[in-house]
């Protein structure tokens, strides 16, 4: 951020002097829109409103979004001091809650592109779609450096290579902010601070707090997510802090604290990390926001939990439901001396400073038309990103696909919801026709028109033969700890389909639609080529262009890929010979196909 001028600092100080303690606490409050009305925003001087995962107003369209955001902004302008709210949302791969928006590949796919410029352009396009709906804050990018791929948030990280995460994360921040933060800029949020990629399997259970009971219906999830990172400080800094340092250098002005803990101490209550390291040592001048209900985990006594977080350095709290309880707790704790007025004024100054940098005090409305949401230019960019993200894991002279008949099979070839994964339209995401876009099959039909191409989701009649088989395997959408999985083996039914098609074709190509490496040894043995497509999003048809060679395959593994079930999926304990390393890809460009690492 450019430095604030003396006048801007004076203006903010003046505003703070004019505020009551309750109004200051209001500015520190982030509420989900379903739990508050625009009038309540005005009455309580609320600072921020969000749409959580799947928090879609009305019919979920861009127009409904804009009307909704504008109603809340208008509410805030009616408050006593007329301070505009900041509206936030998880636009984590495009403005991905909004129906009809452009859904870009999840970060792991962008990591496979290794392309700083592309990632910047993707963030800029996502920013335009976000600002078009009135929202000026995205809870992105996620700067996790996932070590154990059994983690349900692996796909939200760009890579296991922290230098790459740093470079792409910084590019994303610049893209979100754009050249004119106060114009069409969207505030990025570097998350989740810090070390979440190092949380250990089984460490989440120990942290369970009564409020988490609601997730019992989710089965065995939450093994890693919200768990503990038991690593020493030098590793924490070298691997996990580095991307945040790069994001701050790129101008990041909001940082979200992580749900988990470092060596047993909750990150939301970690004064050393939030205040001493982030704010003092790294000079972070923006604000720290807490994660969804995260402070509730700090103490059974809510007011004590609030005080712990704020004293540790949290400036804004994603409550997200009961704003009254939060504001009252802050007021009580300041009155009783548990939180100092200075800490409150510092938090509010940080929040107002960011609002000023976004130009909200001059004009809280948006000049970008909703027509940019899902526009053809952005879909074209998404297509380029998808093509650049594919990683050819193996190839025995069958790629690119030549002439001859093709039998395509597998649910994921023709399913937008599966291609998009979690954080799409709903929090968890869902299989099926959840939003507009194109599938891998649409692309195959375009480049290999019928009758050469035949698609049978379940493989069709076993006696039908073809020269080439293209079969997909996939993970169904999941999110956060609900996606923590002990066993990353390929689903038995999908494996069976691959085996059946093997017998019906001469050459077999398997494409994997997943948020992380799966254990594919039985498939590698029988397939002539295996291609990782990650979670490509709404423009998955671009996969076909790479399979036919119309677009070169340039993606490389952003993460180590275990080769067999015998090797641990905890990457820190994986023997090098048991996995394809970061950077692995089979080059298709010329006749001499070779693996770079062999
Ligand atoms: C919300 C998400 C949120 C999650 C918290 C869901 O109900 O929709 O936005 O991230 O709860 O774990
Ligand atoms: C997630 C965050 C997200 C927030 C709001 C939390 O459950 O951890 O990444 O930004 O919900 O939806």
Topology:
Elements: H1 6-18, H2 21-27, E1 29-32, H3 38-44, E2 48-51, H4 62-77, E3 86-89, H5 107-113, H6 116-132, E4 137-138, H7 162-177, E5 190-193, E6 228-229, H8 233-249, E7 254-257, E8 261-262, E9 265-266, H9 271-281, E10 287-289, H10 302-312, E11 317-318, H11 323-335, H12 341-357, H13 376-389, E12 391-395, E13 406-409, H14 416-420, H15 440-447, E14 453-455, E15 466-474, H16 492-504, E16 505-513, H17 521-526, E17 529-532, H18 542-547, E18 561-562, E19 579-580, E20 586-587, E21 594-595
Parallel strand pairs: 1-2, 1-11, 2-3, 3-4, 5-7, 6-8, 7-10, 13-14, 13-15, 15-16, 16-17
Antiparallel strand pairs: 8-9, 12-17, 18-19, 20-21
Helix pairs in contact: 1-12, 2-11, 3-4, 5-13, 6-7, 6-13, 7-8, 10-11
The structure holds beta-D-glucopyranose (2 copies).
One beta-D-glucopyranose (BGC) is lined by residues 52-53, 90, 139, 191, 291-292, 480.
**Global shape:** elongated
Radius of gyration: 24 Å
* SS-based class: alpha/beta
Instruction: Determine the number of helices (DSSP H or I, runs of at least 4 residues).
Output: 18
What separation lies between the terminal Cα atoms?
45 Å
Residue-averaged pLDDT: 93
Which bin fits the share of residues in helices? 25-40%
Largest sheet: 6 strands, mixed
Arrangement of strands in the largest sheet = 12-17-16-15-13-14
Strand content: 5-15%
Bound molecules: beta-D-glucopyranose
- The strand count comes to 21
- Low-confidence sequence ranges: 590-598
